[in-house]
Amino acid sequence: MQDESIFDELNEECGVFGIVGHPTAAALTYYGLHALQHRGQESAGIVSTNGDRFHIHRDMGLVTEVFSTETIERCKGTVAIGHVRYSTTGASELANVQPLVFTFARGEIAIATNGNLVNGDRLRAELEAEGAIFQSTTDTEVIAHLIARSREETIECAVKEALNRLVGAYALLILTNEQLLVCQDPHSLRPLSMGMVEGAYVFSSETCAFDITGAEYIREIEPGEMVILDDRGIRSERFAPPAPRSLCSFEYIYFARPDSDIGGINVHSARKRMGVQMALEAPVEADVVTGVPDSSISAAIGFAEATGISYELGLIKNRYVGRTFIQPSQMMRERGVKMKLSAVRKVVEGKRVVMVDDSIVRGTTSRRIVQLIRDAGATEVHVRISSPPVKNPCFYGIDTADREQLIAATHSLEEIRRAIGADSLAFLSPEGMLRGIGRESQEKNCGHCLACFNGDYPTVIEQELVGEGQR
């Protein structure tokens, strides 16, 4: 997806990776973060421990910019956690680079999280009223303060007490010099999996990081589960009863890498099936199908195969430009399409083109891409979106626009079509999306969160957030 398709405004994008019991823990964490780079390009960090003290390296930039052979070698120890970040809460600055590290009565603690707290602002205000001083503007520091203030005797009990005050989405890695705690929110809104490599346990936001580190997938972390790893081994406890699973649908639609598996389902295969469903729901007479690189290519292939229309690379991505939606700069967004995409004239010239994309938020990027294809000589441009219309803000770690900026919330299908300049436009239905993903679950919505499509949020939403989202 491009600068102003869904994640121009709906930016989630953080990734966590952790490993316990490996002599080169920091190096494997580096490779894991490199595999998760698509989830956040603003900053990266690793904290490792040899059981005595933390070794920390964090900075702004890409993984390959932040770390060198020397910095990795300085991160000694057999246990490490890492993080790549896009700022959803908190500014894009060094103070907010994770893992965040704190020293309190129990010793050192480092926290890396993917997600967002619905009640984070309220908890922060309560803590500040009680005298807490914050060094960053992230929700992660709120969690640290809650842990530090607990009177429970053990760190795991203090973490459980803290987590039971949280509402929202969080996949957490919490490191001390004695333990690694791996926690998943009761709804499993964010993915988090466990694997093993050379006798060491690894944890990652996506399984693609297991491939690069040579780890074998074991299972997903369950809703409301805390996995504890220390000198006693590995054990699993519940800090909360599991709520109905509500995995973010956009993990399958956009966030995750195509070579990742979520819930035992390959992401590329799911996207391809969504393209097939799109072809069944909204076929069109055309000469060529093209996907908007990269996340829409799988769906475009599925659409082409189902319709019998030839799939071609009608749009080419400039590989030396980052994913501009992760750069929170309006200038980058405005210029992002021309920087990132080119239409292949010999493919689209004189042709009726089906342009498959994964989503639309404000419509400005879609309009620019449609114009790119027309300028290259296409006679018709038909837009097919392999997800339902985004009509509602997200409060779970996706940096959402005000509702009035979501074009599908304020415009009819025909009005959107005219706004983006397409000859025809269709979105995939929620039913078709779930059928395409193929999760065989008896839970509501097959275990997915559909709030951005239908407004049915899996948790209670703070009233002030609802007001902000409705602006």
UniProtKB/TrEMBL annotation:
Gene Ontology MF terms: 4 iron, 4 sulfur cluster binding; amidophosphoribosyltransferase activity; magnesium ion binding
Report the domain of life of the source organism.
Bacteria
Does the keyword field hold Ribosomal protein? no
Matching PROSITE patterns:
GATASE_TYPE_2
Q: Where does [4Fe-4S] cluster bind?
A: 248, 394, 449, 452
Q: Look up keyword Transferase and say if it applies.
A: yes
By sequence similarity, the record places it as follows:
In the C-terminal section; belongs to the purine/pyrimidine phosphoribosyltransferase family.
Per the UniProt entry, what is one GO biological process?
'de novo' IMP biosynthetic process
Alphabetically ordered keywords of this record? 4Fe-4S, Glutamine amidotransferase, Glycosyltransferase, Iron, Iron-sulfur, Magnesium, Metal-binding, Purine biosynthesis, Transferase
- Could you say which EC number(s) this protein's record lists? 2.4.2.14
Record-annotated residues binding Mg(2+)?
295, 357-358
Give the co-factor note: Binds 1 [4Fe-4S] cluster per subunit.
Catalytic activity reads: 5-phospho-beta-D-ribosylamine + L-glutamate + diphosphate = 5-phospho-alpha-D-ribose 1-diphosphate + L-glutamine + H2O
Q: Which cofactors does it use?
A: [4Fe-4S] cluster; Mg(2+)
Taxonomic source organism: Baia soyae
Q: In which pathway does it act?
A: Purine metabolism; IMP biosynthesis via de novo pathway; N(1)-(5-phospho-D-ribosyl)glycinamide from 5-phospho-alpha-D-ribose 1-diphosphate: step 1/2
Please list the coiled coil stretches.
none
Catalytic residues, chain numbering: 14
One Pfam family from the record: GATase_6
Q: Give the protein name, as stated in the record.
A: Amidophosphoribosyltransferase
InterPro entries listed in its UniProt record: GATase_2_dom, Ntn_hydrolases_N, PRTase-like, PRTase_dom, PurF, PurF_N
Q: Where is the Glutamine amidotransferase type-2 domain?
A: 14-232
So what does this one do? Catalyzes the formation of phosphoribosylamine from phosphoribosylpyrophosphate (PRPP) and glutamine.
